[in-house]
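Hey, can you fold this one?
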Amino acid sequence: AAKDAWVWHRITSVAPGNALVWEKYKRGLPVPYTIYPCLDATRVHVKEANNPDGFYHANWIRPPNSDQQYILAQSPNQTNSEDFWAMVFQERVTCIMLIRHAQEKEDWKAYYPAEEGETKCLGRYEVVNVATGKFNFRLGKNWEVAARHLLVTKDDGGEPLEVTHLHVLNWEKYDCPRVWHELSELLVYLRDVKSVRTMLVHDEPFTGRSDTVVLLATMIDHMDTLGERTDLEAMKRGTFERLCLGRAYAIGSLAQFIFCCGVMQLYFWERYGQVPDNHVDYPRL
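Sure. Predicted structure:
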């Protein structure tokens, strides 16, 4: 895909030292969070965060002409889990997608109750695991997802928040999921059946997995807004540029971008029964 060579240039030039950061990270060298910036123009301001600036490492990604919105966030830990739930509660997030392989370190367990019936109290927020593994969506054998239904309440007695929590367990760092149809079908299901309007996605920094999900979701939203009139080439570039302008170090590899383009193209074929002009055989790349 020579015509997509601009993508890799865009990835490595979006911020100073970007390529060096990824190289260090892939080789297992330490990369301090201080060089992983949170772009101020799009960051989520958490009014009740435990710091004077309302800071949590998270950014908004909003597709044009759509009521969908996405938050790309840093995974919470034991020190900022209360701020994480303050953000979720403030923005009325109804779906959280956590992408961590089952063999990766388990620091993510600090912020939610993993077992059904379990409760976690995190500062002013109580999180109850109402149900586990009862997600009403058919997932293929290559798509391993743990589903939880969480109920979040705040100590001020306000209305509780119901959250669908999805943990993707078999997606390797820097790689693409071993599914083509299931991911797009899942995103459409969350939007159209579960009526999710604000979705938060997080994983380990620099791996590109959460960015891949949000890029594909914004592509689908954009296509469904324009329908058959969609210019796929312009949409592909536009959504990627929007992602890069909204979140620093977006997308961890060229393969992840190619994956999104391939799924997007298949989605267009199936939705509108048309073969796009200048289409690419992405599954063979």
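The chain has one domain: 2-271. Let me know if you want another pass with a different chain boundary.
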